[in-house]
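Entry 12.
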Amino acid sequence: MPSFPRPATLSRRTAPRTAHGRAAFLAVLSDSPVPAVLVDLGHGAVTVLAANVAARSSLSPAGPLVGGDLGAVLHPDDREALVDALAGVVGGHLDDWTHETDRPQPFLTARLTLSRLSTPGESPLAVLQLHELSDRREVEALVARAQEAERQAGHRRAALERAKHDFLTTMGHEMRTPLASILGFTEMLQDTAPDEPAAADLLARVRRNGERMLELVEGMAMLTRIGSTPPGSDTPDVDLRDVVRRAVDRIACAVGARGLRLEVDLPESPVALAAHDADLTRAVTELLDNAVKFTPEGGTITVSLARTTSECTLVVEDTGHGIPADEQARVFEPFARTSRTIDEAVPGAGIGLSILREVVTAHGGTVTMTSGPRGTRFLVRLPLRQP
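Predicted 3D structure (tokens):
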């Protein structure tokens, strides 16, 4: 930083009023964290008459600060602007003046604020405050970069969503046809093959795995179309009791094979709502199938359906080991698999609960989950058709 010149000699006319001006300045701004100096314009020099602690700390010339020419350390353009403004402020033509400088020295980036100081019986002096803007400019630049990074990330997320949608749609279309052929020919072989137990067992395995693959493909394709045609006023009513019954029938074999106890509590009167029957049946089946997979042998699964005047609630509870707390927030995400699922090699692609959430949301409902060491509880709320 350039050094200040040697202290200037104040005239007899200036010295008496300077003492009063300095006292008024220090009384107001001595403890201010903003560097401030009391200045006067004499013979073209911006003379520093007083300085607060902050100014003495941030401006450290080789010589004394007070009595020096502040303009000597400024860029010529900034000095010229300051001299012109100081003449206007002291002369009463300007009430105040603000100027931003972006020079390497002495303030880096700063806002110079000039205002009048009047003391009784004296001509006004001027107070110059130096607001450092380097930190503010750096923060503004960081915010701008963060906003741009967020915008770019949003574009990338949108592109990934489109790519995922296109992939699932294409895969569902391309795989559904050959799988249907495989299953069709397998069924024909089962009907015409010789009555040999070994051959019948192999064909049954082919058919089960083919059906499992077809169900997976249809589930992924379903994720791409759910919500495109939400239920409307012309959507036929569905009795949710029938939906639950069909879902229970679909998982009955798995319940029996694992020795589980299934308790179902349904109301006596219909629970009618505007819904896509096939989608809702698939969603409830996925929910029950999830409970079967994670309930140990001999455990219990409870299914209960209730209604109020405006909505119905479906609750599915199991006595499994629960979902780890740090993994519960992800259970509804597509292809999410918990650590227990991986460790115990539980079959599934992790899309069942995603289908459940998407179908329920498309029907104007909500699904929530609570889980602990004694089991997991899912609560589905769906609005009823209003008269």
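Annotation: Confidence is low (pLDDT under 50) at residues 1-15. The longest strand covers residues 109-117.
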